[in-house]
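2.7 Reproducibility. Because tokenized structures are sensitive to small changes in the input, we list the exact sequence used for Cupin type-2 domain-containing protein, including any N-terminal residues retained from the expression construct. No trimming or masking was applied before prediction.
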Amino acid sequence: MRVVRIANVEHVPLGPAEPVPGWTGGEVHRTRQPIIPEGESDFFNASVVNFQTGAQTGWHRHSSDQILVITVGNGIVANETEEHHVGVGDVVQVKAGENHWHGASANGYMGHITITASDSTASR
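Resulting structure tokens (single pass, no recycling of outputs):
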């Protein structure tokens, strides 16, 4: 058994994400806090991803489903046909292969826990 105190997990800066066309929310600044780092589980990866005001991921897809649990702030999760405003306590399931983006609203920050399969890959 392993217990992780999120407040004690180091923030790792993420490289820049390409903003979605028309995005005016600001520069894309994010950090990741690996709570189940790659290789620690045979089945899952999990991290907290922290988005500064207006930051988002840019369009991408995963080879496995992705679960997002919003833990702080407000944001947006969108695919090619829908856009949802999300807040603390919301849980989003993004299906494997679904082209999507997610991030903070233009006037606020957001943090979420992301869970994917251990062998999942992301692509643009």
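DSSP finds no helices and ten strands in the chain.
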